[in-house]
Write a structure and sequence with these properties.
The protein is mainly beta. Helix content is 6%, strand content 58%. It has a 29-stranded antiparallel sheet that branches. A five-stranded mixed sheet has the order 8-13-14-11-12. Strand 30 and strand 31 (645-666) form a beta hairpin. The radius of gyration is 30 Å and the shape is globular. The two termini are 51 Å apart.
């Protein structure tokens, strides 16, 4: 706290002295394109080295300008340079300076699309002027492709990739590193995490609509004024702010999901205005997206060895509703003093019906050549809800700039009221049918002494078995009766499951204070502090209920009034020509599932041996509370050594204090004991950036920085959890250290006159104390063959790579071809880390290649784009053999969009997602010969209309 008081005193001293030290005139103004601000515009005093760049709202402040008549030169990518003569009188407000497009081609692209909030030129200008190594995309760049949530907007950025859930973007990765090693923020503030199955620090951004975003900044190398708690880098989503004049944008569309066979609806509304005197401005925009979805999936579960003990055939259908709201207001007391408020809200509700057929090879009876098939009827609603607000101010006194903010953010995950409001859960009603004929040649019983499971398993062709992912008949050819179909009269009730999770994470207060002082045209300093107080509350319970009623155990046919044909059954896994859906019998309807619980609650009792409850020592790794504070200080200086060479150096120091309260189970006493663990540490992060610009449009950048990542919440939980239905044990390690990285970047970039850029760069990261899951098989509570996953600090690791990109219009070609253009980028990476066993592996989540390719056509009011995205396979967990490593398979997408502007205000649009419909695959080992999970999402399309005032 003494350090905090010292910094505040220093800031106050600099703030009060800056007015006395400032000399000469102050010139303020706004640069726009006639409709919207131009951020990153260069404003120079002609004949001198004095100059500034405009901020995100197009504002600029030139301090300590000589008294008298001076000439300002204002320049911007893709616009004509403009000169303005100013007769200063200590303080001068030059008002709004409007720039014009530099040629007719650009005018057609920008002017006819003036209803859009931002332009590609704006994004490239911010990127070009930044001292940090970053990529920037703006709202209209997002709107040109069918990327509906915040995560999906970044998949087109060089070096970035996403993880998907049910075909939609969810988590963001930077340069092939794990999502929890990236910092994802909104308006510069980290968002609390709350997600159903992960306990990491990665934020799932599928709940936040892209319609609310103004810019996306992907920082590859931090400067000291950024929170550097992401080894891979940081992705900052900047929401829309008050416009310079009244705007009204309406977007309404509808579409169709080929896999679900159901419609899609979306709408958004934006309204903003500014008072006549320009002081008060506001914006409010909301988004609504309702889509039916479907997923076909099969999963091959392991237990004991590489053999499959259970084949799961999963058929999903659901409705997702995303709602978002963004509001911002600002008041400019004077050009030098401004206060603002921003508020954001985002929610995702996913109502899911899921039917799962499980073929139990481990229940094989060799005497009768029969096994068991299980039916799981699943119904649930998953809800993620985030709300946040921020108030702040920006002030200029003499040669100093001062800004502050106070924010609060809350994020929550919960289940909806299924089967009842009192029993909110992931709800499953299970039936089983024994005596199902299985071809004995599919099964092998390999002795444990020879490395086998000691039980019946079906093996993949690569391991000497008959299962073959590349041959659908062999993949699903295990039933001995080709006409077999599950029989409701033979399917007896097995058990009922209420899987309960509640996660609340709150950043109770996020306060920041920054001060920048310009000594002269060549040197400025910036200092600041940031404080965060957060807490996280996680509750978990997995209850299995067995039949305990006096009557006989029911069979599925007893509920004939609620029996239906399985939705989506007819075209299940049609992509691989499967006929396995012919074996699917009747299932329970949603109402039937709900009524089963309501009508039979008194006939059901908790099976404690199968359930995960705190009172019996279960769910230890999912029931814990975290209280944490972050306190950061930084200082940095920017020195312009010449017109071509600028150096930025500084230091950021962050103290983290973490308290975790959880539980441990004393097996000898059958007693649950509370446990508390406290850990604090400093992260000292020096940073150096060098920017060399031998020509106005050429930048050569070098950065040497240090960053860190805190251990995931679940990794530091003191307990552990056995998940019976996955046969997995996941435990925590409260003594984990944070992971640190020294980062080195070298980048060259050349900006084209007519809005474009070509770049090439290399990067290298030297990582200490990486945290990853050590995967191995063992025994838990008498259960053999359990797959353990435990976080540990590994030996030093490294990752390196090459990034290449070009964004270019073909304006050098004749005639019609000049309206085409392309955006290409590729990242090639390699890495290495050493497990405690000594085995050398790549860093988890590191793909060897990332690739994006876009071909676009823009002329007049017509715009169309075809976008391809490729992400190579990567491991998410390592065993001691390649065939025990779990890989997220390579993934390719192709999307199409087109729009046509009618008159000044109207635009019609259409888009198609996932044209290739490639499967998402998890597999064991580097090849796809041993799939763990395979799922298809189908093609989606929409058409709509936009109105822009």
């Amino acid at each position: 706290m003494n350090n905090f008081k010292l910094l505040l005193s220093s800031l106050f001293l600099l703030f009060t002295c800056s007015a006395a030290l400032g000399q000469g005139a102050t010139i303020v103004g706004i640069v726009n394109d006639g409709n919207y601000p131009l951020p990153g515009a260069s404003v120079m005093v002609s004949g001198t080295a004095k100059g500034v760049n405009t901020d995100f709202d197009g504002n600029f402040i030139l301090s300590n300008v000589k008294n008298g008549v001076v000439t300002l030169e204002i320049s911007y990518i893709g616009f004509e340079t403009k000169t303005v003569s100013v007769n200063t009188n200590f303080k001068k407000n030059v008002g709004i300076i409007t720039l014009l497009p530099s040629n007719q081609n650009l005018e057609e692209v920008i002017i006819t699309s003036s209803g859009r909030r931002n332009s590609e030129a704006r994004a490239l200008s911010i990127q070009k002027k930044s001292m940090s190594i970053m990529n920037v995309i703006a709202a209209d760049g997002i709107g040109k492709l069918p990327d509906r949530n915040a995560a999906e907007t970044v998949q087109r950025i060089q070096g970035l990739s996403i993880e998907r859930d049910q075909g939609e973007g969810r988590f963001v990765s930077v340069r092939g590193l794990p999502p929890f090693w990236a910092s994802t923020t909104i308006n510069g503030n980290r968002i609390p995490t709350a997600e159903e199955e992960t306990t990491s620090r990665a934020t799932a951004f599928d709940f936040f609509p892209s319609d609310l975003i103004s810019y996306v900044q992907a920082a590859k190398a931090y400067t000291p004024d950024m929170e550097a708690d992401g080894i891979g880098g940081g992705v900052n989503f900047i929401t829309q702010t008050a416009p310079t004049k009244r705007i009204l944008n309406v977007n309404v569309g509808g579409g169709y999901n080929e896999k679900s066979g159901e419609p899609i609806y979306n709408a958004s509304l934006t309204f903003g205005d500014r008072s006549k005197d320009g002081k008060l401005g506001f914006i409010i925009n909301g988004s609504y997206w309702n889509r039916n979805w479907g997923t076909d999936n099969f999963e091959a579960r392991r237990k004991g060895d590489e053999g499959v003990f259970r084949m799961e055939l999963r058929d999903y259908n659901g409705v997702r509703v995303t709602k978002g709201l963004n509001g911002a207001m600002e008041y400019n007391f004077t050009p030098e003093h401004k206060m603002y408020f921003r508020g954001v809200y985002g929610t995702l509700s996913d109502t899911e019906t899921h039917y799962k057929h499980r073929v139990r090879f481990d229940k094989f009876d060799s005497a009768t050549s029969t096994a068991r098939v299980e039916l799981q009827n699943i119904y649930n609603e998953l809800i993620t809800e985030m709300i946040g607000g921020e108030i702040g101010g920006r002030h200029v006194v003499g040669n100093g700039k001062f800004d502050w903010s106070i924010a609060n953010y809350n994020n929550e995950f919960r289940y909806g009221g299924i089967p009842t409001e009192q029993d909110k859960s992931y709800y499953v009603v299970k039936f089983k049918q024994d005596g199902v004929g299985i071809k004995p040649e599919y099964l092998q019983n390999r002795p444990e002494a020879d490395g086998g499971a000691g039980d019946d398993r079906a093996y993949w062709k690569a391991d000497g078995g008959l299962l073959d992912y590349n041959d659908t008949d062999a993949l699903f050819g295990f039933f001995s009766d080709s006409s077999f179909k599950m029989d409701a009269t033979q399917m007896s009730f097995a058990d009922l499951e209420l899987y309960k999770i509640s996660i609340k994470e709150r950043d109770n207060i996020v306060a920041s204070l920054n001060y920048e002082y310009t000594f002269n045209d060549n040197f400025k300093i910036k200092v600041g502090t940031k404080f965060r107080d957060k807490d996280r509350r996680a509750k978990f319970e997995d209850l299995f209920y067995g039949w305990s009623g006096a009557a006989a155990t029911p069979v599925l046919s007893d509920y004939s009034q609620y029996i239906i044909e399985q939705p989506g059954r007819a075209d299940y896994l049609k992509e691989i020509g499967s006929n396995i859906q012919s074996t699917f019998g009747p299932v329970l309807s949603r109402q039937g599932m709900v009524n089963f619980w309501k009508n039979n609650k008194n006939n059901l009792s908790v099976v404690e041996g199968d359930s995960e409850m705190l009172k019996n020592g279960g769910g230890l790794g999912r029931n814990f509370n975290v209280d944490e504070t972050h306190l950061s200080f930084y200082g940095m200086g920017t020195l312009k050594l010449s017109d071509e060479l600028t150096v930025l150096g500084g230091l950021r120091a962050t103290k983290t204090e973490t308290e975790v309260n959880g539980y441990v189970w004393d097996a000898d006493l059958s007693q649950l004991n509370a446990v508390r663990n406290v850990k604090d540490y400093w992260a000292v992060l020096p940073m150096l950036h060098v920017k060399y610009s031998p020509k106005a449009d050429l930048n050569i950048r070098f950065a040497a920085t240090r960053s860190f990542s805190r251990p995931n919440f679940g990794d530091i939980a003191p307990g552990g959890t056995f998940i019976s239905f996955d046969n997995e044990f996941k435990g925590g390690n409260p003594n984990l250290n944070p992971t640190f990285s020294w980062n080195f970047d070298l980048l060259g970039e050349y900006y084209f006159k007519n809005v474009g850029v070509v770049n090439a760069g290399i990067f290298y990261k030297s990582i200490t104390d990486p945290v990853f899951n050590d995967t191995y098989q063992g025994t838990y509570n008498g259960n053999a063959g359990v797959e353990f996953s435990t976080p540990v600090n590994g030996a030093d690791a490294w990752i390196g790579g090459i990034e290449l990109g070009i964004n270019k219009r073909f304006d050098f070609l004749p005639g019609f071809l000049q309206y085409f253009g392309t955006q290409l980028n590729a990242t090639f990476m390699d890495s290495e880390m050493t497990k405690p066993s000594g085995r050398k592996v790549s860093i988890p989540y590191q793909a060897n290649t990332l690739f994006n390719a876009q071909l676009f056509f823009e002329k007049g009011g017509f715009n169309t784009r075809l976008a391809y995205n490729h992400k190579g396979s990567y491991a998410i967990g390592f065993g001691e053999r390649d065939i025990d490593d779990i890989y997220y398979g390579k993934y390719n997408t192709l999307d199409f969009s087109a729009s046509y502007q009618i008159g000044k205000n109207w635009t019609i649009f259409t888009d198609v997602n996932n044209i290739l419909n490639n499967p998402l695959i998890y597999h064991y080992g580097k090849t796809e010969d041993r799939p763990k999970q395979v799922e298809f999402y189908g093609i989606k399309g929409s058409i709509g209309v936009k109105y822009n005032l």
